[in-house]
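Feature request, filed as a ticket because there's no other form

It would be nice if the structure record came with a short human-readable summary line next to the tokens. Right now we just get the raw output. Example of a typical job, pasted below so the devs can see what we mean:
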Amino acid sequence: MGVDRNHRRLGLGAALLSHATEWALANTGLEWLDLHVLSTNEPAIRLYLRAGFTKVGEVTDMFKFDGRLFSDTTMTKRLREDQHGDG
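Raw output as currently delivered:
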């Protein structure tokens, strides 16, 4: 997910994330949403934390762009309880 640089800080990211979450709840049996974000993308991480995601891991130096190394943060959000009673 991304928002064009010229349209950031207008609530579009939060609206997209909310819509995706509502769609997943209404149209799938998913119990969790997982995502990956560059660890240096602090605005996105704050957005995901406000939306109820938690950090569950980080892989350092996962990507290399233009000669620079970037870490990857994994985040997750529980949508509903396990439907099978085993988790």
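Something like this underneath would help us a lot:
The helical segments are 12-27, 42-50.
The two ends are 29 Å apart (CA to CA).
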